[in-house]
Amino acid sequence: MAAKEFKKYTREEVAKHNTEDSLWIIIDSRVFDVTRFRNLHPGGASVFMDEGIPGQDATEAFFGLHRFEVLEKPQFARLQIGVVQDEEPQIQGGIVPGQISRVPYAEPTWLVEGFKSPYYKESHYRLQKAVRKFVDEVIWPDAQQHELDGKRPSQSVLDQMAQLNLHAMRMGPGKHLKGLTLMNGIVTPEEFDYFHELLISQEITRCGARGYGDGLMSGCVIGLPPVLNFGSPELKARIVPEVLSAKKFICLAISEAYAGSDVFGLQTTATKTEDGKHWIITGTKKWITNGTFADYFTVGCRTEDGFTVILVERGEGVETKPIKTSYSSAAGTAYVTFDHVKVPVENTLGEEGGGIFVMLSNFNHERWVMCCISVRAQRQVVEECMKWVNQRKAFGKPLHSLAVVRSKLAQMISRVEGQQAWLESVTYQMCNMSYKEQASKLAGQIAFLKSHMTRSAQHTAADAVQIFGGRGITQTGMGKFIEHYHRTVTFDALLGGAEDVLSDLGVRQAIRGMPSDVRL
To answer: CB 60: neighbour CB atoms within 10 A?
Structure first.
């Protein structure tokens, strides 16, 4: 469709329309007739008669109070009647599909022009470009809608992701990718590595919708790897294709009201029938992401010889109830009840009694993914703050002229840059270790990384609210992403293991590795 042709006006012509009966304003070279809209304005009618507004250029005043996206909403875009003669728009905002941000520190350095990285190859750049465009065009609008209305991600979005094998790529490199066409052939299964997975996680995070992001089959990201790594060939052949095609959904069910980070405290039990052919599972699970709509549950159980992980299908004896948390119900957070659920022993993941290894090794990948998400979300906060301090005036001058504001920005930027570098270092080790080596060598590193990131994220959230002021605690308008981030930031500090528990895990692993003959 051709762009609408607008009538051209001189600034002198616009200036004549400066009364309540005929009120025009200019915003970034665009002319708007707000005569009728004035009385419908959410911020009141009087602001349109403030000095320098009627018939004048209101660009600075507008962007001091509104996000760019307001101009793109149909109900406001229709107010435009023309453009200023011989002038072009100077302000860029909103989402431009696939575009790299030009705001300093809004992107990891490997995406910034003029910077180099030893970790990323041409295939990473190609994949990033394609994934960003897909996220901006397909996922972003769905995320903004369902983060608010609490509905699960649209099946059409999940189906489009499945067609590109994005769900499969979010599992990381491995045999499950063999024979698949990844993102229309941009990257081959053989060259796909953890850096490809990292960038996919970070691109999706840019939506700024924490609950929706978890609803976007994060249950698969943490619940399917035990099936991939420990399930029988027959079980994998039946379960994996239907989950990766988004026809069925899976979740990880470990946490209980009695045991969160303390997996040894699990009370859900699994006992064998007399013929030894089935497990009978009884117990409850709490805060289970995607649980409300999951078809499969990867369940940690207490068994006669320790702990065992078992894949349970939704059916008789399985009940799920939604739990309302600080973020959107789009995540499908659930309280799950297993009431004498009968499960074939063939659904056992790993060895009987070997569930602790299955659960703990799975935690490494889960926590690493959360690190990818956390640092990218912090970077988005940095971008929001950088834009705000440049367009907001306080005490008669730009917000960035205040030393205290620059100090907060300096700390925020330093944190996010340091965390990304540490994350990439750990990711490089993952690329050069087997799954078993990762479990034994990187558990402490990843635990420290996640604990450090989530603690830093809370500092960043608090600093951002101070920079945005009242807008930082308002769910709409200029600070909506800051408010959302501040409200949901603690999820990362708890999911996958609480900060203090993870820090202690890292230290205990380090102590175990201390040589016995070393002294001061």
So the answer is: 11
